[in-house]
Structures are given as C-alpha cells and as structure tokens.
Amino acid sequence: MPPNTSVQAVPPDLRWIPVQGDSMWPSLRSGDHAGVEPLEGMPRPGDVLLARFDHALVLHRLRRWEPGAVALRGDNAAHEDPPLPASRVLGRVRRIRRGGVVLESGWDVGPRWLGRLRVAVKWRLAALLGRRGGR
C-alpha cells in the first residue's frame, strides 16, 4: 500500500468531518471526509481549519490569526468570512478520506482560479434556472 493511504498512523484524537459544498474545491470535495486534529501550536496562514460559526461548522483556510480574531476564507470565496474569535477554531485538517482512501499528503492544492470559475458558473446556471442553492 502506498504511504499516503496508510490508516495505521491515524491518531486517536482525529475526528472525521463530512465535507459539503464547493467552497474549498478542489482541495476538499463534497463527499470527502476531513480528518481534523486538535490544534497543537499556532496554525500558519494557509492551514485548513475547522471552525464553529453560528450557523454551521466550516472548513476554511486561515488567512490571519490575530489577538482576539481569526480571519478565514474559502478557497473559492470572493471575500473573507466574518472575523471569528480564536476560541471558535476547533482543529486543523491533516488528512482527507476520499473514496475509501486516506490521503495524508497531496490533497491540499490551495486556491485555484478554476475553482472560483466553477463556483461562479454553478451559481449563474442556478440563477438562470430559477434555483437557489446553499453555499
């Protein structure tokens, strides 16, 4: 078995969070499960974090970590999320389970213009068809 598919090294405090939506596509895809570990040390800009917003749990990329507030943003979002207290950050994504395979590396491709284009086309098509979708 290739090293990136090993499940033997999975720590006991890892939590699998289902991924819905396309705000982090292609790094995180709807149907994936994100392996989230508790934060150890200060996260770095670019880390994908799990945070609790008032309306949902969100997996987004860290932009800035400042005293009193954290700035997150989905890879395909036009703007940052509203500032969030650091206490609402629950963990860091370390691996992805996709199609029964655990990816420990190579899954995080970062923001891509193709992802933003894909989301814009999807929303435009939904508007033309008279449908509303959730982000």
How much of the sequence is in beta strands?
Answer: 25-35%
Number of strands: 7
**What is the N-to-C order of secondary-structure elements (H for helix, E for strand)?**
EEEEEEEH
Proportion of helical residues: 10-25%
Number of helices: 1
Rg estimate, integer Å: 15 Å
Structural class of the helices, strands and pairings? mainly beta
Shape descriptor: globular
- Tell me the major beta sheet: 7 strands, antiparallel
**Uncertain ranges:** 1-8
Mean pLDDT value: 86
Distance between the amino and carboxyl termini: 36 Å
Summary tags:
135 residues; 12% helix; 7 strands; disordered N terminus
Question: Can you give a write-up of this model?
Answer:
- This protein is mainly beta.
- Helices cover 12% and strands 31% of the residues.
- The chain has one helix and seven strands, in the order E-E-E-E-E-E-E-H.
- It has one helix spanning 113-128, and strands spanning 15-18, 33-37, 48-52, 57-66, 69-73, 89-98, 101-103.
- Strands 1, 2, 3, 4, 5, 6 and 7 form a seven-stranded antiparallel sheet that branches.
- The model is unreliable at 1-8 (pLDDT under 50).
